Inverse folding.
């Protein structure tokens, strides 16, 4: 099948969705691979396109005016306040489900994850189709998430009919996934809406910690993820990284924050930037660039840890096989 990239084909996208196809679309975080959440076959098609494990649930995306009440069983007052404060935007909220969408969306869980993206392209697409759209990131399972239409092409060319191109994703890492089924909201996946931001509105917010022997609340967090297709190494310090770089054959690259990059003149460096937001925006783009240019990609631990860095460090560590716990 030919894969078309378009900035404006929203009606065509809606036609494909109604016919049970999957369509990739821009969001403010990463590109999504969407299909009709009411259709078992369309949802199963997404899992098969990505090679995604069948117990890793999907997020349902809707436009800002879409009435989510039929999809969710109940909503605590703090969740309403969070919706009003942060949506549309990069916050996914997990509710008790009414089971109206395909059972394959939540992989047998009795909850449903809902997201209202702010991207103009995503909003136009969702409005045109006016259905809940189940959408994981538009990459093959385990690979780095796509932040341009070209990245989607690299993984899914010939497998899907259309990519709705909204340019580069300036959020850069996936949405915050927040469990809204309990008394206090719990972060299942850190992202651009930070714990501090949520706590201010909801009067409290915790990072979810899996208890000994408990099934993970967000199964996707326990898989290998975000892996660039080249050899990688992870270092705590620039000194350690330089030793590995100098001993390496081929074309090694260093991946680090600007502060460290400034000390590494004469080396091949991919500069993540200074602030958490900058590092979020650049991380996947640089992992895509790195896997094409580098024979060995060596990441150096950033020094910043606040705010959005919880999400950035989670993705960076997982991309480089560093185990920093499953859930953050
Ligand atoms: O920014 C994003 O969230 C992007 C764009 C495309 O919207 N989507 C995305 O989807 O990152 P995906 O499939 O790559 O990640 C979905 C995450 C997984 O960690 C999954 O386990 C979690 O959301 N999730 C989905 N439904 C859930 C549920 N009912 N309960 C708990 N976690 C859920
Ligand atoms: Mg993903």
């Amino acid at each position: 099948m030919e894969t078309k990239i378009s900035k404006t084909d929203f009606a065509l996208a809606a036609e494909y969705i109604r016919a049970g196809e999957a369509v990739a679309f821009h969001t403010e975080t990463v590109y999504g691979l969407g299909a009709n959440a009411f259709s078992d076959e369309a949802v199963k098609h997404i899992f098969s396109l990505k090679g995604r494990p069948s117990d890793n649930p999907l997020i349902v995306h809707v436009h800002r005016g879409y009435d989510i009440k039929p999809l969710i069983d109940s909503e605590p007052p703090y969740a309403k306040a969070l919706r009003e404060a942060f949506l549309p935007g990069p916050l996914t909220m997990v509710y008790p489900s009414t089971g109206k969408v395909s059972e394959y969306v939540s992989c047998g869980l009795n909850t449903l994850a809902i997201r209202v993206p702010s991207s103009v392209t995503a909003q136009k697409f969702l409005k045109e189709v006016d259905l809940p759209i189940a959408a994981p990131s538009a990459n093959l399972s385990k690979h780095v998430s796509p932040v341009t239409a070209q990245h989607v092409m690299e993984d899914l060319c010939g497998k899907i009919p259309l990519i709705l191109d909204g340019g580069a994703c300036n959020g850069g890492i996936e949405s915050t996934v927040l469990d809204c089924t309990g008394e206090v909201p719990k972060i299942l996946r850190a992202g651009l809406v930070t714990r501090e931001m949520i706590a201010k509105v909801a009067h409290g917010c915790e990072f979810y910690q899996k208890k000994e022997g408990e099934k993970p609340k967000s199964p996707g967090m326990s898989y290998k993820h975000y892996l660039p297709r080249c050899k990688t190494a992870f270092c705590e310090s620039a000194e350690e990284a330089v030793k590995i770089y100098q001993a390496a054959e081929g074309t090694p690259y260093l991946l680090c924050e600007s502060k460290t990059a400034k000390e590494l003149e004469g080396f091949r460096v991919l500069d993540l930037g200074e602030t958490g937001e900058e590092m979020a925006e650049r991380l996947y783009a640089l992992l895509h660039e790195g896997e094409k240019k580098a024979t060995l990609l060596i990441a150096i631990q950033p020094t910043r840890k606040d705010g959005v860095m919880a999400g950035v460090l989670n993705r960076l560590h997982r991309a480089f096989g560093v185990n920093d716990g499953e859930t953050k």
Residues 4-207 form a domain with the DHBP synthase fold (CATH 3.90.870.10).
